[in-house]
Amino acid sequence: MTPVIGVVGPADIVPGVAQTCSTMSGYDVIRLPYVHETETHDIVRANVDSVDAWLFTGIVPYVHAKGASTRPAAFVDYTRETVLRSWVQLARAGRDIARTSIDTVGAPELREIADAVGLPSDRPRSLPHRVDQRVEQLIDFHRKNPDASWTAITCVSSVYDALRDDISIIRLVPSENAIRTAVTRLSFAVNTHVNEDSQVAVGLLVADDMAGAAPLVRQQARALAGTVATADTGELLLVTTRGALAIASYQFTQPPLLRRLDEVGITASAGFGVGRTALEAERLARRALNRAETYPGSTAVASFRNDVDLVLGAAGGHTAIAQDSPALSTIATRVGVALQTLTRLRELAQAHPDEPVTSRLVAEELNVQQRTARRMLARLEHGGYAERTGREALGSSGRPLTRYTLHL
Fold this sequence. Notes:
Helices cover about 40% and strands about 20% of the residues. By secondary structure, it is of the alpha/beta class.
């Protein structure tokens, strides 16, 4: 079946982005325009069953859609080529490109572009995107331009609509190359998602009443399209796929099986392993079970490759993991990163609010090796406390660094 991409963005930009997507083989495209970016979340929720992946026309709708779907998603990056094209447009119109205010584009990227074309160190004015940013803040930012010789450049349609009759303003429109880059990135995410969903997931469970637990585990296995057997070492062994397990555990935030067992008075520990083969998944499940058994009461742990463990919580009403301003001690327990390290990561994010967090930055600030920093960020990403927001090139050589927003 041909994958379907849902293109979400302003009504006047979606058609062009969708047309470029359509010229790239292997995808069907549906157009999902909005009048105002605040409609994004509802649009995604309403079409989640019709779409295999999401392409947002910019980072603003991408952020507004957060939490509405677990499908792979990407956004069109307006940096570099798109900004340069807007400056060329202004220069042809006789406007001073140094006298511009630009919203949403990150400060480091904009400074790099400005240096490349020889603009003064204090020009142009910029307001990088923030997760909690309001449209009113963007409007106020552009209104503070010193005089009429300045031009506002915005990525947000509602900002353009609010200011176009009052000041000189243009909208950034994504280039075809930027769109194609985003689609290529999305294609990789789709393939990764499919491959991950088909990975083997093995669960090992021990309970204080194994005979009573077995029927409930078999019932859960049918819901997961999996099978149940008894391991050589006596545990109940469940075999399914990562995708089915992710759905049952609400994307690895709540422990499957344990609540049902707790309701009938059975205390259990469960370990889930996700791997490329059944042997690898069972080995990881064993590691997860060993960790789960160190906690009092019913607890489940999921183990992944690359040394990533997640505590899925305990039964009896303690399964929810707070995502809004979560306690660092809770995160430390869940993802297996030391509390002191998490404190330093939170301070790092607060000290660099306008810069992307990368493994290089984490390694430099925490004085650890870069592979250690990558492992920390991977654990936080699996736990839902770090979100990928793009890639940062390392110059002419080296693999690109992944940018993260930390939710600590």
